[in-house]
Every structure is written in C-alpha cells, then in structure tokens.
Amino acid sequence: MKTTSHLAAVKAVVLASCGLIAASTQLNAQAASPSIPVGWLTAFPTVVQTGTKPTLTWDISYPSVVKDFVTVVPPATVSPKQDLDVEVRILGNGVTVSTSGGGFNFVNAEAVLSFNNGSYNRIFYGTNNNVNPNTIVWSMSRIRANQTLRFGGRFFHNNSWGTLFTSSSGTQNVQTLVNGDTPPNKVPEYGAPTLESFIRPYLGPNGKVKIGPMDVIVFMELTHTNQNDSGYDQQDMVLLVTFKERK
Where are the beta strands (DSSP E) in 147-187? Predict the structure, then answer.
C-alpha cells in the first residue's frame, strides 16, 4: 500500500485411463471452462488376447481462450466475436489519502462502463470497504458480436471529482489484459509490499496475469497522469470481466 501527502494509488493431453478426468478448480469468477484439456478414454474389450486390438473411444474438451471469443483492442476496448453473456465485478478500489497520524483513509471512487459506443454510466461508487468481488455490478445475458465494452473511473474527494479516465481517453490510465499477459509495468511486482492485496490473487509468482480462461482484467490509474510519478501504479480501480458462452 502506498500513500502520499496527496491522493495516490493504493494503487492435446489425454490420460490413458477409463473414466472421466476431473476438471481443475476454477479461479474466482471465471467462466465454467476447463483450464487444461480434460476428457475420457475407454477401451473395449478391456482384456484382449495377444495380436488383437481393442476399440478405443474418447472425448476431449480443450480449454477456452478468451481471445478466441473476444477482441481486445489496446488499451481498453473489448468486443465479442460472437454472442456471449458477460458479467463485471469490482476487485478493488485502491484510492487513498494520507492522514496526519501517518495512516490513510480510503477515498470514494466510481467505475463506469460504456456499452456499444453509448455514454459512460456508473456501475460502482464507494471506497474499497464497499467492494465485494463476488458481487456482479453489471451483466448482460446476450452481448452481440462486435458490440463494444469500454471502462473508466474517477475519484471523489473534498467535494470535488478527479479526472475521468476511460478507454476513450487516449492515455494508458485504463488497460485490459487476459490470462498470461504481463501486467502494465507500473503495477508492482508479485512480491512487492506495495502490491494491493486485492490484486495479488490475480497475479502469479511468475509476474503474469492469473485469471480464468474467459476473463479480462481491467487496471486503472485515477490519481496521476505522469507515468514517472511513484504514485502511478494502476491499482486505483480493478475490474474483472467474465464472458460465458451461451448455452
């Protein structure tokens, strides 16, 4: 956690066995897709004589990769390639202000979303204490192919709004990444004490983004514009966007 005297960011594999191979445990909020290939293999008859061959039957489910279903246009525009369901969650709001005693207080901030080139509308407002990453703050049961999702946010402090940064701002203050991507270079390393606790479950020790195969994570920097400032760490507002194939 980092605070200053002004606002800052706190900020094909088959196992030769008979029966079903269990899917690995899903990451928080990811779509119900396997993260490794899974499936089954049977042989009939199960006991054969030398020189004869059994009949093999198998089925494999390969993991989904979000970029097979969604186009991610840097820095932060997302659009599906086919009709999909989508859910958005807030992972954390890391905007704080320091106190005279050397501590800090969380600051209110809002997250906004633009759907299909429409206006940006609020999907969350509050401090980090109001964040529940299991709560879906915006969803759509069917988003059509090529309809866009864009994201943004700003803080509110001393009865005044900070700058609204969005996918359309022409800056790097809002960025989207998928599983396996390298985080923006201003996000602290996995083991760094300045890495927000709410981000840690979504980064791996190898420094890569660790989310579900149908997820997109959104990092925002809301308090600084100068990327050389120590407070620019893109941890001010973090969203998780989960896409799901329609049944």
Answer: 149-157, 160-161, 165-166, 174-177
